[in-house]
Amino acid sequence: MIVHLHLVRHGQTTFNRYNRLQGWSNAPLTDKGLADADKAGDKLRDIDFAAAYCSDTTRAQTTAQRILDINEQNGHKRPELHADMHFREQYYGYFEGQDMNVAWWAAGAPHGAPTYNAIIEQYGLGATKDFLKEADPFHDAESDEEYWQRIEGGYALIANNQALHDGDHVLQISHGNTLLSLMHRFAPEGYDLSERPANGSVTCFDFDTAQPIDRAFTVASYNQ
Questions:
Q1: Which residues are annotated as a binding site?
Q2: What is the CATH number that goes with domain 2-89+143-221?
Q3: Residue 10 bears catalytic tag
């Protein structure tokens, strides 16, 4: 069974505006963030969604509800919204709410990579998670392994949804680093992943629910 996932990055929050790490933190949407959500809703107004998922953060739930409002106003049946912690952004532990440049310097500088992009270029995206956990004095930040174990649990929830059928469309409200992580793991060559997904952007995957997770996703579009 293949379902079509429409992953929307939530609208801009105050932490996005202030360039602060925002994983499990719960900063509210700005006025621009509400407009981001409405813009995504307008893009998706003609899609008939069979299901909708988001993380249990306020920014994701608010974005989802505004998209579903627009979708319903355009004549579509409104699916139940499933909010679950498995769909949360990467957990940054001690560095939650920290200025991003300061946090990534703390993570990468001991390894000779003082910025987020430098860590990726020298060590790969997974190292951004492992280095941040290492730099966290409490070691509460998620490692790459811990992160993927949780994220894969979220997609197991979708795969096990008995109400879904082959060809159905599913809305999922996602997060910036999670979208990048999915793209780094599953995208073929040719995508510019130096460009972060914008708030309110739409990324589409075909999800083969019968396949093991490493072969389950095909990228249809990124950061639209």
A1: 9-16, 59, 89-92
A2: 3.40.50.1240
A3: yes
